[in-house]
Amino acid sequence: MSGSMRGRIIGFAIFAAICLGLTVYIGADIARIQTGGTYHLSATFADATGLGGGDPVKLAGVQVGQVTSVKLVKGQAAVGMSIKSSIHVPADSSVAVHWRNLIG
Questions:
Q1: What is the pLDDT of residues 39-93, one digit of tens each?
Q2: Distance CA 89, CA 12 (A)
Q3: Taking the mean position of all CA atoms in its chain, how far away is CA 20?
């Protein structure tokens, strides 16, 4: 095998590895798979229309977790959330459900 052919094979292998890595990263982002440590919080809402598992949880506009469950408990929507361990949410925090629109 010539040096030119070996260089092409190595170049292609590097290209394929980068493409595979990016595909896995984009797939995990689309599937909303969280990596790293998390902790669980829950909140109760009178109305959680349109909210579902995997929806983003944001703090100051930055995604810090995702919704893990939405259940009906005594006429109220009980929402479970998984929050990144690096984020501290104070116990006296208030939460709200915001609907997505054409702007975001």
A1: 999 999 999 888 888 888 998 888 888 899 999 999 999 999 999 988 888 888 8
A2: 46
A3: 20
Instruction: State the Cα–Cα distance between residues 4 and 104, nearest whole angstrom.
Output: 51
Encoding tokens for residue 21?
């890595």
Please provide the DSSP assignment of 9-46 as one string: HHHHHHHHHHHHHHHHHHHHHHTT---S-EEEEEEEES
CB 89 within 8 A of CB 83: yes
- Angle at CA 66, nearest 5°, toward 20 and 76? 150
Q: Which amino acid is at 20?
A: L
Alpha carbon distance 28, 71 (integer Å): 25
- Residue bearing tokens 């977790």: 65
